[in-house]
Amino acid sequence: MQQLTVEPAALLLPRKQSHATVQPPSRPPITRSSNSPTFLSFNLRNTFAIVIIPLGALLCVPWVPLKNRTLLFGVFYAYLRSFAIVTGYHRLWAHRTYTANTALRFIFALLGAGAGQDHIKKWARDHRAHHRYVDTDQDPYSIKKGFFYAHVGWILFENNKTSSTGHVDISDLKSDRIVEWQRRYFVPLFAFMGYLVPALVCEYLDEDFVGGFIWAGCIGTSVQQQLTFCVNSLAHWVGDQPFTAAKSARQSPLAITLFLMGEGYHNYHHEFPTDYRTGIRWYDFDPGKWMISFLSLLGLATNLKRFPQNEINKSILQRKRENLKKEGEAVDWGVPLDELPVWNWEEYEEQTRTGRNLIVIRDAVHDISAFVAEHPGGPALIAGAIGKDATELFEGGVYGHSNAANNLLDNMRIAIIGDATKT
């Protein structure tokens, strides 16, 4: 199965095929940048589902008290639908990191519809395009277009949904009968599972149909959507990159990872998308991994895929080398030996006779003028080596100098002794 990155699904409601508009011959076609949406480019159906419904619910809050049982069920149902997105839409259908039986796929399809993040085929297609074209114009929710765009803008603005998304293979999704069934009946399934089911359950639990509709349905669905959307924005915005720096995905801090239902291990996910895990260490907070493992114990999930640990270790080591190289470039190591001027021994002796405090260690000429008075062994000891080859003294003849002393000495070198015979 490919790695988990819960990305916001595509359009909340299926879009009808748009028809081309014939432009008058005297006027050039009107074009707009995908980065500069306007009011006219709003996708009204998505805007209604993501913005208008939750805002309307919030306006009703003063007249609809929140009951304890409604709150508990609302939280439970939001997490249940999140699992359908994380383990179903994302890890099962988008990345095929494991295999699920028909009953489990049907449950995921129902609960996923209730999450209001579009049907499986659209969600998985956009997510595959996100991985294939990440951080490019063909990435449907590229963070390069801004935090708001990656979070929800790509859903709200229709002109950013059809023209630039890169091509991916979804032949497996087209041949999946459950995927096709859910796509065909997505709108009624979304209304039923997203709003009516919470209302009916809360009516049964505490005679709270309206509270269930407003709190567990409208508000609970919106909160669950926003948490999912954060994976496309926060998880590409905050955190470090221990596996690869070639993509924007990051390993978010633990607080954000908890907030994102374990989806904060995003740098790993983008580097190893065929792994059913995102948190690979036993103590990593990855509810999706735990749920899939539990389902496999029940025989509902099989063929769980893991990326070879040796290859994971390679990426970690390569990334450490990259970071180490970058850190090393910020340190002054002295002038490289191959960039130093070449002196013969006679030139070296001539320079010392002019009063310069020079010594030779390992054929490199060092100007120790500023260090003579600071020498830990006293100025007399180091003064006795001026104008000579002090390699033997430096390397143990008097004192075996430390690595720090070697590093300090490197910053004092000014020339290299050539092939001339020393006298």
Automatic annotation (TrEMBL):
Cytochrome b5 heme-binding domain span: 340-418
UniProt keywords, alphabetically: Electron transport, Fatty acid biosynthesis, Fatty acid metabolism, Heme, Iron, Lipid biosynthesis, Lipid metabolism, Membrane, Metal-binding, Oxidoreductase, Transmembrane, Transmembrane helix, Transport
Domain of life according to the entry: Eukaryota
Substrates-to-products reaction catalysed: octadecanoyl-CoA + 2 Fe(II)-[cytochrome b5] + O2 + 2 H(+) = (9Z)-octadecenoyl-CoA + 2 Fe(III)-[cytochrome b5] + 2 H2O
Stored InterPro entries: Acyl-CoA_deSatase_haem/ster-bd, Acyl-CoA_DS, Cyt_B5-like_heme/steroid-bd, Cyt_B5-like_heme/steroid_sf, Cyt_B5_heme-BS, FA_desaturase_dom, FADS-1_CS
Subcellular location: Membrane
Biological processes annotated in GO: unsaturated fatty acid biosynthetic process
Cofactor (UniProt): Fe(2+)
Cofactor annotation remark: Expected to bind 2 Fe(2+) ions per subunit.
Record flagged with keyword Iron: yes
Topology within the bilayer: Multi-pass membrane protein
Bilayer-spanning residue ranges: 47-64, 71-92
Keyword Iron (UniProt): yes
Major localization class: membrane
Function: Stearoyl-CoA desaturase that utilizes O(2) and electrons from reduced cytochrome b5 to introduce the first double bond into saturated fatty acyl-CoA substrates.
Family: Belongs to the fatty acid desaturase type 1 family.
Protein name listed in UniProt: Acyl-CoA desaturase
